[in-house]
Specification:
Layout lengths: L1 H23 L6 H7 L1 H16 L4 H38 L5 H21 L6 E9 L10 E5 L11 H13 L4 E4 L15 H4 L8 E3 L15 H17 L2 E3 L3 E7 L2 E7 L14 H5 L7 E4 L4 H10 L4 E4 L24 E5 L2 E5 L17 E9 L1
Parallel strand pairs: 1-12, 2-3, 3-4, 4-5, 7-8, 8-9, 9-11
Antiparallel strand pairs: 2-12, 6-7, 10-11
Helix pairs in contact: 1-3, 1-4, 3-4, 4-5
Length: 385
Amino acid sequence: MMLIKLFLFFLLLLALPDMYIHKTYIRRFPQWIRRAYWLPSLFLLSGMLLIFSLHEPRPNSMQRLSHFLLIFLCFAVPKLLYVLAVLFMNFLQFISGKKLYKEYVAAGLGLLSLAYIIYGATEGIQHFQIREVTVSSDELPAGFDGYRIVQLSDIHSGSWTGNGKALQKAVDLINKQQPDIVLFTGDLVNNVATELDEFIPILKQIKGKDGVFSVLGNHDYSLYIKWKTEEAQKANLDSLKSKQAAMGWKLLNNDHVILYHNNDSIALVGVENSGNPPFPDYANLSKALKGTEGMYKILMSHDPTHWHREVLPKTDVQLMLSGHTHEMQFSMFGFSPARFVYPEHNGLYQEGKQSLFVNIGLGHLMFPMRMGAWPEITVITLHKI
């Protein structure tokens, strides 16, 4: 169903600008030029039908889809922006009565968009940003004042295939922060555990003084692949868990550990993915919290919608860390379409004495680019009020 919706969206994105441009400019040319104009779009449409009909969410197929989407966007987005700019300037020209050289302005905007897409697909995906955040609480034990947490999320290792150099750059940045602890909030792979193999030697280099802890995200369960048997799917998940253990990461599945620092203690809690449909909900928060009563608690939960659904109304968890949204890998002047899908989609949110931080992810999925919503390494410093 998702691929059908995506296909229809891209069909409209391809067809509507072409129809306008053909009607406004191309139809005055000889017939062979009018026909030739449609050839690139027909090739893209044919490719779209082929890619979408053969697609399954395994590494090779995911890479084909990503490469095709990049080519498609490089072709379709500049034309769309050109048409929108011309229509808008037609309106301005009508009300002002002045000649605005609309085609030149629109063409410039289209070329700029093409350059931005290419940048997002080449440098943008590895334009790693260190985000410094302070979370204050009067309930934090004094011994944890100044405690430094590096939060990572949504690595999506299958999208980095063949580009270990970029992930190594990220790992070097992480270790440079000298964190007390590193917390990973899910989606280590796109769909299958074998995606991780190439990067185990790199990711195992990540160090925190108190260790590296992780939880599972929706993609880690491999729900988007048609497995022949439930046993095969379970074997894939078990393999992913064992690979994390081989990297020295400690997976918290509806469980908690007690952290000690300067003669004080807090609880670090981790739950399995808890999302709104169609995303899975395997979390058992009450089980994970059992034994942490009266303590300052940090909860790792991949999907930020868990905060309003269960964490706020039913617990006293002081700080929840999430990922999942990717900020839809696009942000312009602080605006991202992610805000229409997720009330909490990027950064720090607070209600009373409870806080949520949403990390927008280190990796990328499907669309092989990041534009404005740069890949993020978050350094969270706890502060005692």
